[in-house]
């Protein structure tokens, strides 16, 4: 349930951030979102009162923050110029493959039903992404490449957060954000990107950041209770929410294979959950 909740919230966050980048500079939107996640992660840590973690947890947390930033910047850039109904699922299938491969390689052995669900999930997001060649509007190679990089970034985020110890509490979220936020500020300063006067995009960016930290916290708790190879796949179903919002609010069209893929995604979540 924690992984499923994180998927729903991730998807909503991605929609908000993607919409913001269509009317405001990418780095500005990222800065607003990151500033929000930093503030909320510090507040969450203050409430939890977790002791400072050892060096290994700090290293994994910092790596998770940089992986997340890579994923977010690439993802927002792809969404600013491509269709959400294509970009989000492509990112998801890659972000699911990375932790599954790492989990199995490190000795995790999910049940047969769960592994069938994993395979079904990968097919589902491939269909949603338009692997059959039937999409409402073709996507350029650059957009597809950005979606691929974003998927790798998010997949590594899932892996790195899983590598932190249970005793580290919510420190991984805070350390990760404190690592990535200065990078965003440095990029904005170097490129002299405007940070004011972005109107409603600022509110969407703040909402994206608040939702993202909620999703990350839920995912972190989920990985401490379940197998990485299963939790990450459930979390990677977030495109269902993004696609639903894009089709409902932005009137993006879905082809028949994409609709079939969404149905398969729901079935895959049920199978992975039952076989966990």
Detail the topology: elements first, then pairings.
Elements: H1 2-20, H2 26-48, H3 55-81, H4 84-105, H5 112-128, H6 141-163, H7 171-191, H8 200-223, H9 228-235, H10 239-249, H11 256-275
Helix pairs in contact: 1-3, 1-8, 1-9, 1-10, 2-7, 2-8, 3-6, 3-7, 4-5, 4-6, 4-9, 4-10, 5-11
Description:
The protein has 276 residues and is mainly α. The protein has one domain. The chain has eleven helices and no strands. It has helices spanning 2-20, 26-48, 55-81, 84-105, 112-128, 141-163, 171-191, 200-223, 228-235, 239-249, 256-275. The longest helix has 27 residues, at 55-81. The N and C termini lie close together (12 Å).
Which key phrases capture this entry?
276 residues, mainly alpha, 78% helix
The mean pLDDT is 84
Residue share in β-strands? under 5%
Radius of gyration over all CA atoms, rounded = 18 Å
What's the count of strands?
0
**Helical residue percent?**
over 70%
Overall 3D shape: globular
Task: List the helices and strands in order.
Answer: HHHHHHHHHHH
Summarize it:
This protein has 276 residues and is mostly helical. It is 78% helix and 0% strand. It has one domain.
